[in-house]
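Example record for the data management plan.
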Amino acid sequence: MNASTAPLATHPFFSLTPDVVLDALASVGLYGDGRLMALSSYENRVYQVTLEDGSRVVAKFYRPERWSHAQILEEHAFAAELMQAEVPAVGPLCLEGQTLHQYGGFAFSVSPWRGGRQPELDDWEVLEWLGRFMARIHNVGAVRPFVARPSLDVSTFGTEPQHWLLAQEVIPLDMQSSWRDACAQALALIASGGPQGYRLQDASVLRLHGDCHPGNILWTPLDEYGRGGPHFVDLDDARMGPAVQDLWMLLSGDRRQRTGQLSALLDGYEQMRPFDRRELALIEPLRTLRLIHYSAWLARRWQDPIFPINFPWFGSSDYWRGQVDMLHEQIEAMQEEPLSA
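Corresponding structural encoding:
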């Protein structure tokens, strides 16, 4: 990245000091004992806070100007619907009659703390269990649409990031034409539906978790009463989209491994909800869109000081060369037969 996009000391999160976090909690009647631990989050700032009575909560401070209040409240309402349906999601607490609060120029929410670890995705029983719960999320998600939140589509995750990256001259000159050509080829293939002719806009859409990677699922072992298993966190990227978006990020490895994982997930999913197998043709297009969107996301966040610290490799010619190689791999993958289960 060039000097004009260097981190700025005036970035809003510079003012979010530990004292501000504790004062924000005190403003809604929660008093910390001084123990704060920053949790892994780049888009927002999230802290585990120990209260004076020894209990713990998670305070989430939203990135300014990313979501409107209406969009955040739709996320909160979706979480409340899931919990009411006894789906193990973690939503914000209602404090003083509301879930979204303001302090020091920040919008924030407070959720109960839940422990756990990432699920063992090489365990077929775990995958089947996750499939059942994902179907239950989608059963709730299908009841009504989001009104304020956006949809996952080619424009917002592909075309717009592509144009922005080129217009901002983020890509080094020695890699610009290679990336531009590979990106254009990939997006044209996505728009056409590829060999299967099934396009993203052909799929039915519903409210999704939206970012269901393993890090957003916490797993606790079963206790003697049968309590435990998965619970889903971080609905920050919830949006409208096809059901397969919440499944494909749980697949990894070679084609044989991914096929087995997908079979286990769908075995569980279809116990609770039908799944349109045509959507399997969207897995590689969705992976490609995420690849393009991710580069633009990093570039757009570069003035946030946490990004250069955690992504020091971003912006170099080697980074963009790797992106070009991955786009070519995705172009090949999108022309293969989709996974089947």
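Summary line stored alongside the record: The mean pLDDT is 93.
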